[in-house]
Each structure stands twice: as C-alpha cells, then as structure tokens.
C-alpha cells in the first residue's frame, strides 16, 4: 500500500466492513483437522498442484482445479498448504475457506470483498484503484456477485496490469486472439516476466449454506478462466456432492476444470490420462486413412479430461471406451462424442455408474434392439453350460445362436456390429460370442442399471424351454442333417435346465402339458435296442421329469393340474411293453415311489429297482439284440397289482 495504512483509504475501510477475515488461510480462527495425516497421496497431489501454479500460463489448458474428497479427507489442510506455498512464492491472489459454523463463511455474500481486499495487499498498484471504486460507488458492495467480481476484481486488476506493463505485454497476455498462433492450443508469447500468474483458492464449497449462491460463483469463475482475461488459476475444493458435480459438468466449466480425487484413485487417474492419450492416439494412426474426417488435434485436451473424470480411476471403463471408439468400420470421432454424452443420474455418480451409463448408451443406440436383447439373453443362459455341454455336443456359442435358434449368420453379424466392445476379442466371432468381462451380463441382468436394455434371463429360459419341447415333440426327419441332430441333442439334454430356470409363463405350462413324456421316454430310452445304457438313461429321465413337476407345482394350481401326467409317470410308474422280433410280446408294469425323489436318493437305486423288476419277467431269456420296447401309461387296474419299489442296499 506504498507505506500508507489501510485507514488512509476510506474506500478500503468500507470494503473491509464487508469481508470475512476468518476465511483467510492464515486466520487465527482457522484450525486444521488434528486427524489429518500427510499421506503419500496428499503429498503427491500437493506437489503436483505446486508445479501447476508455477507452470507456463499460456500452455495450461485447465487453469481451474477441483479437489474433491470425503469428509475429513484433508482437503482444507491441503488447500492451506498450497496457499502457504503460493504466498511464499508471491503468487497468491486470495483465499476463502467456507465453514458451516461461521455466518460470514457459509455464504458467498462476502467472498468478492474478501478476495479484493487480499489482492490489494498482494498486487502492486491495485490499492488506489479499488479504493477509488468503492469510494465513488459504495453501493457496489450491495450488488450481485457477478457485478462485484467484475468491479472489485477483474477491472481493477486489468487496470493495474495495464499501468505496470508495456502495451505489447498487455495485449499478449490479455488479448490471446492477437497472439501469433503456432498450433490450435499454443502461442508465441512475449509477455513480460513481471506479469505474475496468481492462484485463487476457495475451500469447502459444500459448506456454503445456499446452493443457489454457488451457481453464479462458479459461472463467474469459469467465465473469467475461459476468457483468460486475467493471469489467474483457481483451486476449489469440496465433497463430491451431486449439485456441485452438476454445476462443474456444465460446458462453460468442464472445458477449463480438471478434477482431482483426494483418494487412492488419484494415481490411477493420472495413469488413465496417460493411457487415454496413448490409446486414442493409436486409434488415430490406425484410422487416419480409412476415416479421413478425424480432427488433426483429436482428442482435444477437454475430451481427455472428461474421460478421466468419468473413469475415476476405473480401468474397465477406459478399456470399454477404447474398444468401442476403435472398432473397425466405426467413426472414432463420432463414437467418442457418444461416449462423452453418456452420463448417469447425478445422484448416483460413481465409477460403476459411469460404466453402466456407457453400456446403456451403447446398447440403446442399436437399431434392432429387440433381436439384440434376444441374442444377449440367450448367450447369458449359456454361461453356466460352457464348461460341460460344449465338449459333449460340439455346439459352440455361435452354433447355438445360428443352428439352435436358427438366426442367420448375416443377421447376427449385422445386429452385433455396433457392440463388438461387449465381447472378449476385437470381433465377437473370434471369441465365440464370449462377453468381455462379467460386468456386462451383470449389467444386463439388472433392470435398475440397464433400464430399457434389461435382459430378464428367466423369460429367455422360458422361451428356450418352449423351443426345446417343440423340437423334442416334432417328428424327426428321415435323413436329418448334422445341425438338426445337434439341435435335438441340445434340446433333449437341456430342456430341463431351461425349464428349471424359467419364469413359468402360461405358454410354457401349456407346452409342458402337451409334452408326451411316455413317447419321449420310448423314443429316447428304448428307441433301438435295450440292455445297454437304457436303465441309466431312464433313471436320469425320471429324475428330470420329477424336478420339472416340483418346479412348477408351487407356481399356481393351474401348474399342478397341467402337469399331472408328470406326477403320474414318476409316482405310479409306467407300462413297459417288450416286443421280440419273433413276435413274442410282454407287458411289464414298472412301479415307482415318490420316496425316491422326496429323499433325494441317488439314481443308482432307481436303476437297481428297474433291473430287479425286469429280471423277474420273461425278458431275461431273450437275447438283448432282439428286443424293442415302448413305454405307456399304467392302466387303472394295474395300479393295485404292482409291487412298489424296494430299496436295494
């Protein structure tokens, strides 16, 4: 103040009356949290921020930083440490530490006056200018925040700079449009070294009592930063509140503000930033000839920063973005724009919800969504079977879709063309339609997360069970193709699996009612010869039938009524009619008991029972290769004459 006391400036005396002295970083009332520890993360962040405050202003694309963290994570202490470093380096513009417990610090009403009074002591030549502004128009202290910032901060600072520096230096720093461009973001600068870049620190935005006051404040700050009218950097800190995130996501702010998490994801975010630049740069090289419309400086620093914010250290998110943007035949710039548009609801922002928002945006942008969801649902039902059925029946996941569901390969390729990133390799067909990671089917199975892209797996099991029953009850062709044989084998071995996980719609219950278990047993178990694996196959068939009966027994009375023939087959038994090639025939009633199923006895005992009953018949003397058999329902009068199953121990 050129040796004069504050009292010599009546305008500054009036200004001081409207300030919050306790909001300064070195105020006596400012007490750091005793439980704060200088962790490696906080030390790394502080070091990076100090480097940022000293870096070349004209090459800084993000002159605003948002440090966010949980309560008691050390944001305020870190902000105070940075303020001390800036004050020592004569690069501090001012500080304002919000507080819930101070009537002057839980509002933005005093913030412009507090900043202006600090700047008076930091910036040469500013004292008489600000004094004159307030002396001539004391009512400026009662105007809007935007007006106060313009009259007390922006204009006086520019006037002081203009008076203390050459015209060339002034034009170079404060009128960037007149600089000599060397690139889209770089300039040849001849600014005077005396023009000192300063840092403004605002701590604890979430402690401002009125959220309505923060919007104008952040708008003024971001506008000042964006226009580069002042050599100013700004650090703001707060908890990660939804309303603050919403404000910082606005285009005017997000293009100049870098987000800094005060947690263990900070290092990951730094690595994500480097990986984004490397991977997207590689995509540019790969697509430079095939897609000529990629901007020369792509992706822009703003786009990279938004991706880092969205990732929040989540490398799965980054991997999905890179895979989606770089797909063959895609326009990378357009794909990246779609990624940047994908945002979750503000109230549920987290790394996982960002990934969900990306999945949802990709999924819902597909043209034939119903068919796509049918395919994805069918694939999810196969995840449990992958370990066993593929080796047994040589039915790959791709064949399951094209042969069993009979979706032409060309149609499949077209439907999946926009979601290659959902699968393991660069092409879904290279990975045999295996998902890239578990988060994708988990996302699809959750209605809350996927919304209109929800895959209700029970419904898909339902439709697949119906298809299996349809295949099993159809008349087999005289000369079936290999694909038809595979289709039949899959249907036989997995109709129970799909039925057990099905929702149990009326359509499925009707299909089960029409399913002739006796004909199926005859066709499957004794279709050709006997005394091979027939008993084991029959035991498995009976057990499966009973599982389906119990599964739908509790759904509704209708389910019990429709599936009575399942219960009769398992609980009472069946009639085995044996025919020899010489014309001899014999009917063998085979009785069963529900105790086998109620006690969950091994199938071995059922096989032993079948063997014992058949051994008592005249069939025992007939050569195995000369026998054919059929299974039919027991006649009512036969129920009382048969011997119930005996356990063989």
TrEMBL record:
<feature type="domain" description="Nephrocystin 3-like N-terminal">
    <location>
        <begin position="197"/>
        <end position="239"/>
    </location>
</feature>
<dbReference type="InterPro" id="IPR027417">
    <property type="entry name" value="P-loop_NTPase"/>
</dbReference>
<protein>
    <recommendedName>
        <fullName>Nephrocystin 3-like N-terminal domain-containing protein</fullName>
    </recommendedName>
</protein>
<dbReference type="Pfam" id="PF24883">
    <property type="entry name" value="NPHP3_N"/>
</dbReference>
<keyword id="KW-0677">Repeat</keyword>
<feature type="domain" description="Nephrocystin 3-like N-terminal">
    <location>
        <begin position="60"/>
        <end position="155"/>
    </location>
</feature>
<dbReference type="InterPro" id="IPR056884">
    <property type="entry name" value="NPHP3-like_N"/>
</dbReference>
């Amino acid at each position: 103040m050129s040796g004069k006391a504050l009292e010599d400036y009546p305008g500054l005396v009036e200004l001081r009356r409207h300030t919050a002295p306790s909001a300064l970083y070195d105020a006596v009332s400012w007490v750091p949290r005793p439980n704060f520890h200088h962790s490696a993360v906080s030390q790394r962040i502080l070091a990076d921020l100090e480097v940022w405050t000293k870096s070349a202003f004209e090459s800084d694309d993000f002159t605003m930083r948002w440090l966010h963290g949980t309560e008691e994570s050390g944001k305020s202490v870190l902000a105070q440490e940075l303020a001390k470093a800036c004050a020592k380096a004569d690069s501090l513009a001012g500080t304002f530490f919000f507080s819930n417990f101070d009537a002057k610090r839980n509002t933005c009403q005093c913030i412009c006056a507090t900043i202006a009074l600090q700047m008076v002591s930091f910036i040469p030549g500013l004292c008489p200018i600000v004094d004159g502004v307030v002396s001539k128009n004391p009512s400026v202290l009662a105007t809007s925040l935007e007006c106060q910032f313009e009259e007390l901060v922006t204009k006086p600072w520019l006037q002081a700079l203009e008076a203390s520096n050459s015209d060339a230096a002034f034009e170079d720093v404060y009128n960037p449009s007149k600089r000599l461009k060397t690139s889209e973001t770089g300039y040849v600068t001849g600014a005077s070294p005396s023009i000192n870049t300063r840092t403004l620190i605002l701590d604890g935005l979430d402690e401002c009592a009125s959220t309505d006051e923060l919007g104008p404040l952040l708008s003024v700050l971001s506008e000042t930063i964006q226009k580069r009218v002042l050599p100013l950097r700004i650090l703001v800190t707060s908890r990660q509140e939804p309303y603050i995130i919403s404000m910082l996501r606005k285009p005017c702010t997000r293009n100049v503000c870098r987000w800094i998490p005060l947690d263990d994801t900070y290092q990951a975010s730094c690595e994500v930033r480097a990986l984004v630049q490397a991977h997207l740069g590689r995509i540019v090289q790969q697509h430079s000839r095939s897609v000529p419309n990629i901007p020369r400086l792509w992706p822009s620093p703003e786009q990279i920063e938004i991706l880092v914010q969205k990732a929040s250290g989540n490398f799965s998110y980054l991997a999905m973005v890179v895979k989606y943007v770089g797909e063959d035949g895609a326009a990378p710039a357009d794909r990246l724009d779609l990624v940047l548009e994908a945002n979750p609801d503000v109230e549920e922002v987290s790394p996982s919800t960002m990934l969900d928002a990306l999945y949802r945006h990709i999924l819902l942008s597909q043209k034939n969504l119903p068919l796509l969801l049918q395919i994805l649902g069918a694939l999810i039902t196969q995840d449990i079977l992958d370990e066993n059925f593929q080796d047994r029946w040589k039915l790959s996941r791709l064949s399951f879709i094209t042969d069993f569901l009979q979706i032409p390969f060309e149609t499949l390729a077209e439907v999946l063309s926009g979601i290659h990133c959902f699968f393991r390799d660069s092409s879904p067909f290279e990975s045999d339609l295996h998902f890239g990671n578990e988060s994708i089917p988990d996302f699809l199975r959750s209605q809350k997360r996927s919304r209109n892209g929800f895959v209700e797996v029970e419904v898909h099991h339902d439709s697949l069970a119906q298809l299996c029953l349809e295949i099993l009850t159809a008349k087999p062709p005289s000369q079936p193709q290999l694909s038809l044989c595979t289709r039949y084998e899959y249907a036989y071995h997995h109709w129970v699996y799909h039925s057990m996980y099905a929702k149990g719609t009326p359509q499925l219950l009707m299909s089960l009612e029409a399913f002739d278990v006796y004909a199926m047993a005859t066709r499957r178990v004794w279709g050709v010869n006997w005394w091979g694996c027939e008993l084991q196959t029959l035991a498995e068939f009976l057990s499966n039938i009973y599982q389906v009966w119990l599964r739908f027994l509790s759904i509704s009375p209708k389910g019990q009524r429709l599936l009575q023939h399942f219960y009769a087959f398992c609980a009472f038994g069946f009639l085995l009619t044996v025919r020899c090639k010489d014309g001899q025939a014999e009917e063998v009633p085979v009785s069963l008991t529900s105790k086998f199923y109620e006690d969950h006895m091994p199938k071995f005992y059922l096989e032993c029972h079948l063997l014992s009953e058949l051994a008592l018949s005249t069939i025992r003397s007939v050569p195995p290769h000369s026998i054919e058999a059929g299974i039919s329902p027991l006649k009512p009068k036969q129920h009382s004459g048969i011997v119930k199953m005996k356990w063989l121990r």
